[in-house]
Amino acid sequence: MSTDPAPARRRPTHRKGRATLTRASVGQAALDFLGRHGPAELTMRALATELGVSPRALYNYVDDRRDLITVAAEIFESAWQPPPLDPAPDRWRDTLRAYCRDLRAHYRRHPGMTTLALTENITTARHPTMLRNVDALIGFFTEIDGTGLPPREAYLACMESIRQVVGFVEFQDRPHDRPPPHLDPAELRQSPPPWLREGIEDLPHLRRAAEHPHPELPDSVFEFTLDVLVEGIAAAAGRPTS
Amino acid sequence: MSTDPAPARRRPTHRKGRATLTRASVGQAALDFLGRHGPAELTMRALATELGVSPRALYNYVDDRRDLITVAAEIFESAWQPPPLDPAPDRWRDTLRAYCRDLRAHYRRHPGMTTLALTENITTARHPTMLRNVDALIGFFTEIDGTGLPPREAYLACMESIRQVVGFVEFQDRPHDRPPPHLDPAELRQSPPPWLREGIEDLPHLRRAAEHPHPELPDSVFEFTLDVLVEGIAAAAGRPTS
DNA sequence: ACCTGAACACCGTTCAAGT
DNA sequence: ACCTGAACACCGTTCAAGT
User: Which of A16, A108, B31, B113 is such that its CA lies 20 to 30 A from the CA of B41?
Assistant: First the structure.
């Protein structure tokens, strides 16, 4: 065979001055939208307006709003490139921590993506890239620290790690990054937060904490989460920290 | 003084055959509703219909839908009575595990409550009962295992424990208890779940897992989470498991 | 093939009256 | 004081045409 067959005729890339829509471009637009607005603001009408089309036009590429969010979630998952993991005894803790920090940053870049996946009941880890990442993380846990975890525990440790990161972003970072409008953002940078500082006269430990408030960055709280995760997994590997 | 003053005239307890509404009863009705329906179905109109009033009537007791959910969340928090904690070296692990199991069961009884609090940006731990529980849990961590955790770490361990339970319910239990309609519930009781069993030809660890599927109850996955949490906190206490 | 515009059945919320 | 019913501005989605 001399040359490749001529590529199939491409569909036009533009129409009426704007780029033609595709399933992927609509999903990408939705993901971008979530980087700029809250999840409730992502409506079919708002996205259509932003794309310069009528709401009905979106339905030529996605089935419905749930499908739109599914596409956005797949693009979101495929867009993360994890840092390297190293199961060597003196390396696995640090590389796992770096891995989780990077995953947290990725989720944080698109606040609302997780929330929407939750409210729309969308199962994640659907994109091949994400499957590859999951597989590599399981493999990492089967090898950590020399002996490694047995298959079931390696699988559970993988899911546990991801869940910890996602849970932290949802329950710790999101209220911090997008506080309810009635709260003073400066108050949120203190520990304990304002709602744990009222009506605590008879509660000795919260009272003591409130008397000595100190700045607490989410980053340092996350390090504590990583302490618990890493050492908890180390214990599961039958290797208590030395 | 002879007798107590006559109690203030009570408002009538019934009106037109049905119980009169109050802020608390409306919130309780919303919480009950969440035990029976999904979070998206909790609309002002649906709740009003269930209570036998017009939607407008609800606005005499709550400011708006967000306020309604706030009331429901406060009732939800006040309705939990935690099992006892014991910081003794040979007891703290087991009592902490029982505590987390019970908290998980409480959240699970009202699926959607957490999701709604998230989507409506409602800060939790507002009810005095919940504050008391938080205070007691911090106190527990300051005493575990003899030496206990320092105040900051005890506070962080408390928040970490609660976040782990809530995260587990949201990300593990909820998809399991209320699967998306297109998934076969029987498939969900297997490990790995169906979406980790397709397109994995080149992924050795997922492939091996898929070749040996086994029933995996959420309860046993939760025990792994507790393993990691408890031993991780034990390590933070400077006391690796023996 | 892909779009628009009108329409339908919802939703939260408010207004103007009722009793 | 507390309610109803109508109304408004939204939303997701669909229908009937346009080009």
Answer: A108
